[in-house]
Design brief:
The chain is built from 25 helices and 2 strands. By secondary structure, the chain is an all-alpha fold. Strand 1 (79-80) and strand 2 form a beta hairpin. Helix 1 (2-13) packs antiparallel against helix 8 (108-136), helix 15 (258-276) packs antiparallel against helix 21 and helix 16 (279-291) runs antiparallel to helix 17 (298-321).
Length: 489
């Protein structure tokens, strides 16, 4: 079936990323929502951060579930042969439950519980979908296929922003209940459809279902590419079986050797640096930022809707034409440099043209909005797609689920912190808050330049060469440093 089958799998599984869509940014500014709950900034921060906290614990649980039940089931969460409870119906069922609670909430407590449950679902999916796509994708197209996670996430934001903009004109509680309830639709589609996708061949090899793994590899390559499929299968088989000799489920394995320390630093680092770009401040609190630039009320939601469309356009161009050609490291360095510039300019504009100024400089305020839009474009050409690709491709199969779990948990932990702090910081220190991101991205740029390797075009099994460790193949007289350490222990 070949490339089109790979694209179908990546797009459909990435419906999980569609659920990330930031509908809450529009809902928080609606008059009917504020009248029903509150416009207090600490409650707004809690509504955002409780969701992110749920994501953290969802991702943590997904790390165990992916190794126990497989990538597909962790997305699916079905019961098979009355023995195994798998993982994306858990994710999807949590998503349905959380969305229903949010849409039907009559008090803050119910809303927050719904946000936590919804967060658990997104945590499971945000960790599992890129991991699954990474293990399914061929090396030469892995950046594009895993980058579709960011594309679906962006489309989710487009839908969320425009639904939020349209619903603000409804003069009842339906204005905020409908957008929150709309999350039920993609969750149900994923719940039903994931059963038609194949298992990860690498996970099948881990659990000794070798013939099934071989069938999946051949199906992914399509007819006429049997030789390439056989070569990939043999490399995959030999490496995974060799890794099984030294496999450990301990968290400490992520820093047990120098190469593993570097893998973990790169994976966790790219996810944390992604939060330091400041993109989620815009996604969650964009209307508040626009208000500081003189755009208030429905106009702020309109601008947020237009903003949401910019990123996915840039993202799809980047993942199709550039990501698998220019690699991972150069886009990350480009992005960090751009964020230093855009947040510096934005801070200067807000500092010199406060929203309560008697005669604000309209041209400068428009330039500030342009900087916000440019930040989105730069994010989509760098950290947006690359963070999902790099975080899951650097680990060996034996510790990929565990490593991706830690990286995703780090992402959500810092996301939670930013969600809680941002509304308070923008209210208390204003433009100075943007300077924090200038400093963070400057540090990120230096660390990426010094410590991040290039991984484009490599198979997942060849990452051992990239990071300087080896595994022992069956019948090989050579021993890896890992095995030597094990024998000397």
């Amino acid at each position: 079936m070949g490339l089109f089958y790979n694209i179908f799998i990546a797009v459909f599984s990435s419906i999980g990323a569609f659920l990330f869509g930031g509908i809450i940014a529009s809902v928080l500014t609606m008059e009917r929502y504020q009248a029903h709950f509150s416009s207090d900034s600490s409650i707004e921060g809690a509504v955002v951060s409780t969701f992110n906290g749920g994501c953290f614990f969802g991702a943590m649980g997904a790390g165990w579930a992916n190794d126990r039940f497989g990538r597909k089931r962790t997305i699916q969460n079905v019961i098979e042969k009355a023995e195994l409870t798998s993982s994306s119906q858990i994710g999807c069922l949590f998503a349905l439950w959380g969305a229903a609670m949010q849409a039907g909430a009559n008090n803050v407590a119910t809303l927050l519980v719904g946000r936590i449950i919804g967060g658990l679902a997104i945590g499971i999916l945000s960790m599992t979908v890129p991991l699954y796509n990474t293990e399914i994708a061929p090396p030469k197209n892995r950046g594009f296929l895993v980058g579709l996670t960011q594309q679906m996430l962006g489309i989710g934001f487009i839908v969320a922003n425009w639904v939020g903009y349209g619903c603000q004109f409804i003069k009842s509680d339906v204005s905020w209940r409908f957008p929150l309830g709309l999350q039920l639709v993609p969750a149900f589609l994923l719940l039903v459809g994931i059963q038609f996708l194949p298992y990860s061949p690498r996970w099948l090899l881990e659990v000794n279902r070798d013939e099934e793994a071989k069938e999946v590899v051949y199906k992914l390559h399509g007819k006429g590419h049997e030789e390439a499929a056989e070569l990939e299968y043999r490399e995959m088989h030999d490496t995974i079986k060799a890794e099984a000799l030294v496999r450990t489920r301990k968290l400490s394995s992520l820093w047990s050797t120098r190469p593993m320390c570097r893998r973990t630093f790169v994976s966790v680092g790219v996810q944390v640096f992604c939060q330091f770009t400041g993109i989620n401040v815009i996604n969650y609190f964009g209307p508040t930022m626009y208000a500081s630039l003189g755009v208030t009320g429905s106009k702020g939601l309109l601008v947020q809707g237009i903003y949401g469309a910019v990123g996915p356009i840039a993202n799809i161009i980047f993942i199709i034409f550039l990501l698998d050609r220019v690699g991972r490291k150069k886009p990350l360095m480009f992005g960090a440099t751009c964020f230093v510039a855009t947040f510096s300019i934005l801070a200067a504009i807000v500092a010199t043209n406060p929203p309560d100024a008697p005669s604000p400089n309209i041209t400068a305020q428009r330039a500030g909005i342009a900087m916000i839009f440019l930040t989105s474009v730069c994010f989509s050409l760098s950290f947006g797609p690359v963070s999902w690709v790099l975080a899951s491709e650097v680990f060996p199969t034996s510790s990929r689920a565990l490593g991706t779990m830690v990286a995703t948990c780090a992402n959500w932990a810092f996301n939670t912190m930013i969600g809680q702090v941002s509304p308070l910081a923008m209210k208390k220190i204003g433009w100075k808050f943007y300077m924090v991101f200038v400093c963070l991205n400057l540090v990120d740029l230096i660390l990426i330049a010094l410590f991040f390797p290039e991984t484009k075009g490599k198979t997942l099994e060849q990452m051992n060469e990239v990071f300087g460790d080896q595994v022992v193949f069956e019948g090989s007289p050579e021993k890896s440093s890992i095995e030597n350490e094990k024998e000397s222990a």
